[in-house]
């Protein structure tokens, strides 16, 4: 099952996870002497962290063979899934808006490695991979994209509305920036209930100019809410480059009185390091901003070719120099945790998994017409919701 | 879908829990009787013949006796105190209930609804926010998703326009778009309506703006009795509920029962049974209607007055039964004429009860203008009792 691929493995003594699925890993992936070692190794992040009114964490990150391979598998699965979604969209099986995450996988995977399922994540509409990282089911994801009954939101949400309550994944929001106060509210509830958990509140460089973000930041700082605001800076707010939209594109500094960290979002170990640091920080001292310097290969959405406002050279250059999966591949090969062929075979397996999930999702039927009226209210109580009318009016009065 | 499951919208304890909205006539009859009993001087009966001055200072109930149906004597209080009592009771019962708003804590609330609550429950549970409606409403929604039951106050309902995106997209729709995973048991409340020369921006009626938002429930309170009952029901409801209060009604005085009670969120209130015409109204206009009713009774008419209370969904059951009896309908509301609650109600009545009507439905609403400052102009913006009398005379020709 594809979900098994995304099991989180952490080499260090992290807090207990809520992820229920046990090891071992599927046999085909282990048969060939791919290292499963949990011995700690130290790797330097690509660039040092830049910080704003806080001492940054060190560049040296600890990891292990097992973790690196898990990173490789998770990110490759996400990459494969997003590319498959691209094909499905072009085949008109996915309609409407479809915002793809390929290129940004390191943020989702690195963040997940640093936290537990008891911590909360909320994001905007580029949410497929965050859903998968939180343990979301691949079949349910594709079914939702195709609007089928077995989708994770029963076919009623679509690409921009993936949620997973039991993994504390709070979606999945279409309106730019509206999820930021929501995330602060989740953090408020965490503080109110003294849970000792944190919320990772993701938004983009476009949303960074929303007023409600600064409103929420003010309140979060005022009440020391355990919220990490993560700006996934892919440098383009749809078609507008950051320097054309923001007077100050140093998003990690825009918290003013709130500390910030600038992180290479294409380096999964840097992301993990920063998120670990951030979680400890907010539990002590209130909010922090993490700016993830990342990049999306696709356009803003499937309706946007992504090449009218940036050059193909730029996109190719990033793919060449900074691709997150290639970086991990190089690390694995350099440490000889697996051979190049083994990694290629892994990718082939994942491709098969994704194809199988899509095939299964295609079998799922469209939602029943009665689903139009369910979940409008909790406990629909046998009512069908017709706006201001209620079903009872259909009866004959005595 | 559970066909005959009783409403779990406010399933906890107390008196007026909702009966299933089934087709069975027996159930329907029982409900009508219960509602009528409330009107006959039942618990906290308020309204028949009550005169309320336009500035809504404390009015004397014409029933001096203790509220019928109340085991003990009942106690008298003002509407804002009734809201406060409801809040205190619910916050004592359930530790996840919290209040979020501007000046609700240390200041005690701009209309004193939350007076003393911060001392009782602490600063975290009665949260003073900065002036940031959009984001603190969003925070309320996020907190509700994570298991709290926030009561978000808009200092004036009109300010919640700033939070419209949060109320519409997140609050109203998240239960649906998440396929039922998240519920948003939030209460959004605040005073609205035309006051005493407060100016256009502070005299807004948002019930018409919010009524199309799927997933929201809307109720309007008008007496201390139903204010407390509706507030409690709204807090206990698993759905997001917008509770509309009115700036001019906060000082209404009434005797309410000592024991705990809840009002049904979807139920209308029979204020004055009658035979000739059904007058549907809510919030402050109820009092203008009752004032007009006195004149009408003197002129020999017998109006049936229903305070619809539930603005979304409408209690078409009570309303329908009334129309079946009287065959004539007048809607009196404070909303604007265009796209108001009256417009929707009229449409719903035509769809469902056309055969019972003997006359066109009349709807008296506020004028489609920004509320002017000058007192004479402001009076002309809203419906006055004399217009109601004239309308009834016209309908009953």
What does this 3D model show about the protein?
The complex is a heterodimer of chains A (398) and B (397). With 398 residues, chain A is α/β, with parallel strands linked by helices. Chain A is built from 13 helices and 10 strands. Chain A has 2 domains: 44-367, Rossmann fold (3-Layer(aba) Sandwich); 370-397, no CATH class. In chain A, the strands form 3 sheets. In chain A, strands 2-9-10-6-5-4 form a 6-stranded mixed sheet, sandwiched between helices. Chain A has a two-stranded antiparallel ribbon with strand order 1-3. In chain A, strand 5, helix 8 and strand 6 form a beta-alpha-beta unit. In chain A, helix 3 crosses helix 13 (340-363), helix 6 (138-145) packs across helix 13 and helix 7 (179-192) runs parallel beside helix 8. The longest helix of chain A has 26 residues, at 65-90. Residues 1-22 and 381-398 of chain A have low confidence and may be disordered. Chain B is globular. Chain B is 34% helix and 17% strand. In chain B, helix 2 (79-93) runs parallel beside helix 8 (224-236) and helix 10 (316-326) crosses helix 11. The longest helix of chain B is centred in the first third of the chain and has 15 residues, at 25-39. The interface between A and B is large, with 67 and 77 residues.
Query: What is the typical, i.e. mean, pLDDT of chain A?
Result: 89
The ordered string of helix (H) and strand (E) elements of chain B is HEHEHEHEHHEHEHEEEEHEEHEHEHH
CATH class of the largest domain in chain B: Alpha Beta
CATH topology name of the largest domain in chain B: Rossmann fold
Gyration radius of chain B, in Å: 20 Å
Number of domains of chain A: 2
What composes the largest sheet of chain B? 7 strands, mixed
Q: First CA to last CA of chain B: what distance?
A: 46 Å
CATH architecture of the largest domain in chain A: 3-Layer(aba) Sandwich
Cofactor (chain B): thiamine diphosphate
Organism (chain B): Miscanthus lutarioriparius
Domain Transketolase-like pyrimidine-binding (chain B): 77-252
GO molecular function, one term (chain B): metal ion binding
């Amino acid at each position: 099952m594809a979900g098994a691929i995304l099991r989180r493995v952490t080499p260090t003594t992290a807090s207990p996870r809520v992820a229920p699925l046990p090891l071992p890993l599927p046999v085909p992936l282990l048969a060939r002497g791919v290292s499963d070692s949990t011995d700690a190794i130290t790797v330097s992040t690509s660039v040092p962290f830049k910080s704003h009114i806080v001492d940054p964490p060190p560049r040296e990150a600890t990891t292990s063979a097992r973790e690196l391979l898990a990173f490789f598998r998770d990110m490759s699965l996400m990459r494969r899934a997003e590319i498959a979604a691209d094909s499905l969209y072009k085949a008109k099986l996915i309609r409407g808006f479809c915002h793809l995450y390929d290129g940004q996988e390191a943020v989702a995977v690195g963040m997940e490695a640093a936290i537990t399922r008891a911590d909360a994540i909320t994001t905007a509409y580029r949410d497929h991979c965050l859903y998968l990282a939180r343990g979301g089911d691949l079949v349910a994801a594709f079914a939702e994209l195709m609007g089928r009954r077995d989708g994770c939101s029963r076919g009623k949400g679509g690409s921009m509305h993936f949620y997973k309550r039991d993994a504390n994944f709070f979606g999945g929001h279409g309106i730019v920036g509206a999820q930021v106060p929501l995330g602060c509210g989740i953090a408020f509830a965490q503080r109110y209930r003294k849970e000792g958990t944190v919320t990772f509140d993701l938004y983009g460089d476009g949303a960074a100019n929303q007023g409600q973000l600064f409103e929420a930041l003010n309140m979060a700082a005022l009440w020391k809410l355990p919220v990490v605001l993560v700006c996934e800076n892919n440098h383009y707010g749809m078609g507008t480059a950051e320097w054309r939209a923001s007077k100050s594109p140093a998003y990690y500094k825009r918290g003013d009185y709130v500390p910030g960290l600038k992180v290479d979002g294409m380096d999964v170990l840097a992301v993990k390091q920063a998120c670990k640091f951030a979680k400890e920080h907010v539990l002590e001292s209130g909010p922090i901003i993490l700016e993830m310097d990342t990049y999306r290969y696709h356009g803003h959405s499937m309706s946007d070719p992504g090449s009218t406002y940036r050059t193909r050279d730029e996109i190719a250059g990033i793919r060449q120099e900074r691709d997150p999966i290639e970086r991990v591949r190089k690390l694995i090969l350099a440490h000889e945790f697996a051979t190049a062929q083994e990694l290629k075979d892994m990718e082939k397996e994942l491709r098969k998994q994704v194809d199988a999930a899509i095939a299964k999702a295609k079998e799922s039927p469209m939602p029943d017409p009665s689903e139009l009226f369910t979940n409008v209210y909790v406990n629909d109580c046998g009512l069908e919701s017709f706006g201001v009318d209620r079903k009872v009016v259909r009866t004959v009065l005595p | 879908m559970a066909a005959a499951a009783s409403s779990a919208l406010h399933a906890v304890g107390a008196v007026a829990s909702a009966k299933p909205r089934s087709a069975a006539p027996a159930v329907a009859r029982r409900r009508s009787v219960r509602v009528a009993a409330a009107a006959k001087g039942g618990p906290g009966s308020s309204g028949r013949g009550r005169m309320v001055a336009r500035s809504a200072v404390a009015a004397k109930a014409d029933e001096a006796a203790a509220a019928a149906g109340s085991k003990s004597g009942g106690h008298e209080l003002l509407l804002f105190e009734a809201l406060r009592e409801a809040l205190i009771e619910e916050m004592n019962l359930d530790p996840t209930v919290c209040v979020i708003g501007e000046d609700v804590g240390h200041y005690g609330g701009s209309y004193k609804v939350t007076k003393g609550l911060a001392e009782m429950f602490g600063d975290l549970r009665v949260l003073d926010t900065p002036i940031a409606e959009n984001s603190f409403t969003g925070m309320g929604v996020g907190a509700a998703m994570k298991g709290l039951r926030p009561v978000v106050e808009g200092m004036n309902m009109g300010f919640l326009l700033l939070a419209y995106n949060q109320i519409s997209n997140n609050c109203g729709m998240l239960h649906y778009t998440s396929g039922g995973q998240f519920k948003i048991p939030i209460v959004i409340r605040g005073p609205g309506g035309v006051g005493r020369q407060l100016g256009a921006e502070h005299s807004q009626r948002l019930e018409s703006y919010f009524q199309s938002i799927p997933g929201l429930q809307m109720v309007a309170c008008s007496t201390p009795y139903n204010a407390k009952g509706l507030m409690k029901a709204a807090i206990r409801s698993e759905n997001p509920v917008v509770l509309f209060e009115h700036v001019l009604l906060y000082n209404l005085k009434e005797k309410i029962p000592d024991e705990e009670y809840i009002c049904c969120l979807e139920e209308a209130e029979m204020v004055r049974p009658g035979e000739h015409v059904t007058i549907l109204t809510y919030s402050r206009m109820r009092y203008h209607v009752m004032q007009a009713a006195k004149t009408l009774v003197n002129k020999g008419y017998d109006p049936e007055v229903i305070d619809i209370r539930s603005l979304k969904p409408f209690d078409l059951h009570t309303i329908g039964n009334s129309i079946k009896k009287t065959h004539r309908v007048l809607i009196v509301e404070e909303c604007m004429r265009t796209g108001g609650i009256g417009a929707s109600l009229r449409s719903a009545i035509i769809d469902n009860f056309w055969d019972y009507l003997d006359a066109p439905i009349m709807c008296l609403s506020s004028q489609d203008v920004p509320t002017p400052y000058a007192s004479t102009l402001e009076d002309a913006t809203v419906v006055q009792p004399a217009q109601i009398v004239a309308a009834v005379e016209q309908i009953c020709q």
